[in-house]
Amino acid sequence: MRPVVTILLLMSLLSFLGCGHKTPDPGPEMDSNVHLKKIPFSATHGYHAYSNIGYSAELTDDGKTRVIVEVGDDRDRVFMEDGSLMDSLEAIVREYRMNRYEGYYRPDMEILDGDSWSMEIDFTDGSSSSCGGYMAYPPYKGREAIGKVEGFLSRWLYQEPAEEVALVSFRYEWHGEGGGE
């Protein structure tokens, strides 16, 4: 009886210490001939005002990077940067092998008032990766990877843009019966 108890205690201790815990395989590296073309990213942090933030970084035909920031109002803030910005983003995508991210990640239990995110990554060879999540992230350091992308793009959140573009502009006119002007 004593050896059984000893073995069970030893197994419990080893599982507690993480012995046998394997880091998920990140998958193969990206092809070195494939490069980042566009990366729209959005995040919602809770349910407070202006909690939904959207970013997009896109390589333009002239080799520059267009960064668009949308923060819950009716205008996009547009910034033009040099092409090295996409190289920096591509380094993050490569480091975490984000070309392998697919689908929607969610926790095992319901969580209210949490954070959500979505991202689509387009590559120069025409391939893409689309993913998102609510209080959950891809395996192999997914939370860290998503945090790096958001942290990198958020540097434009409080900067003054070179231009602002109206998203929606319309005038409502009533032409029916029963009211309106």
Topology summary:
Blueprint: H1 2-17, E1 36-45, E2 52-59, E3 65-71, E4 75-81, H2 84-95, E5 103-105, E6 115-123, E7 128-134, H3 142-153, E8 163-166
Parallel strand pairs: 5-7
Antiparallel strand pairs: 1-2, 1-6, 2-3, 3-4, 4-8, 6-7
| Helix-strand sequence | HEEEEHEEEHE
**How many distinct helices?**
3
Radius of gyration: 23 Å
Instruction: Give the biggest sheet.
Output: 8 strands, mixed
Mean pLDDT: 76
Account of the protein in words:
The protein is an alpha+beta fold. Helix content is 22%, strand content 30%. The protein is built from 3 helices and 8 strands; from the N terminus they run H-E-E-E-E-H-E-E-E-H-E. The protein has an 8-stranded mixed β-sheet, covered by helices on one side. A hairpin with a 4-residue loop joins strand 6 and strand 7. The termini are far apart. About 13% of the residues have low confidence.
